Amino acid sequence: MELSMNERAKIIAQTTNRSLSFKGVTMIRVSTEYFDVELTNNRMAELRINSSIRMEVGSFLNHSSNTLYRQAIRDYRYSQINGFPFHPYEAVLNYTVTYNKSCHLSYYHDRYEYTGGAHGITVRGSETWDLNTGWRVPLSSFFKQGTDYQRYVTERIIEQAEKNMAENPGIYFEDYKKLIVQNFNPNSFYITPQGVVVYYQQYDIAPYASGIVEFLLPYDENVKKPNCG
User: Fold this and answer.
1) Do residues 124 and 143 both lie within one domain?
2) Would you say 157 and 139 are in contact if contact means Cβ atoms under 8 Å apart?
3) Residues 82, 115: one domain?
4) CA–CA distance, 226 with 142 (Å, rounded to integer)
5) CA dihedral of 62, 67, 68, 73, whole degrees rounded to 10
6) How many CB atoms lie within 10 A of CB 172?
7) Are the beta carbons of 101 and 7 closer than 8 angstroms?
8) How far apart are the first and last CA of the chain?
9) Are the C-beta atoms of 223 and 142 separated by less than 8 Å?
10) Domain span at residue 69?
């Protein structure tokens, strides 16, 4: 098999939109923007990637159309009894490709839910794949073997966070340094042409207004660029 044949994946955009009602009133609006991949000569890798995406989308649609829908009906009935306004729920799942070359595909997906109140909540997930083996690529693979990569990553993140905090006080919680180490998740990363991005979920290290917090680790002598080898 020629590695060059799978240097990139063909991305095929997919969307779904649905609105679920109860007694003529919209309870929840559900939408997804995701994709399928096509690989020239590695159907097994293609199947693994597409299955992973389809399972996440299916889980999201099932949760939205059942659990959230039933919850919305309960809230709607309660609002009618007590004379409160009812705001339809929202559930959105969006996929974003961040890297698709050098035999690697990386992307993240944001799962947003609004169930009333002041604002909704977004939870991010991500995957990085080797297009030739069809296996997920861990964060550790972008560092030399034997490197204490978690310590290296958190130290670089703290350095960036200190600069950000000096420029914009209040952007993180006061104990952000401890939280950066405590809430570090080696699965919370994706790659870009510029480097590896490590992210923290809402409220992990910062207030809601700061959103999902990202830190870029540029490729250098310590952070390896993806390749087909």
Assistant:
1) no
2) no
3) yes
4) 7
5) 130
6) 22
7) yes
8) 13
9) yes
10) 3-130
Whole-angstrom CA distances from 188 to 67, 89, 128 are 26, 27, 10
User: So what's the pLDDT on residue 97?
Assistant: 98
Could you give phi then psi for residue 81, rounded to 5 degrees?
A: -65, -40
Q: Beta 25-38 vs 89-101: how paired, if at all?
A: parallel
Among 63, 95, 130, the domain boundary falls at 130
The residue count for the chain: 229
The maximal CA–CA distance of the chain, rounded, in angstroms, is 67
Q: What is the 3-state secondary structure (H, E, C) of 49-89?
A: HHHHHHHHHHHHHHHHHHHHHHHHHHHHHHHHHHCCCCCCE
CA of residue 4 relative to chain centroid, distance: 28
Q: Which of 113, 156, 167, 107 is nearest to 136 (CA)?
A: 107
**Contact between 55 and 71 (Cβ < 8 Å):** no
126: which DSSP letter?
E
Closest CA to 38 of 12, 20, 17, 13: 12
Phi, psi of 140 (to 5 degrees): -60, -25
| pLDDT under 50: residue ranges of the chain | 1-4
Give the model's pLDDT for residue 1. Answer: 39
- Look at the chain and report how many structural domains it folds into: 2
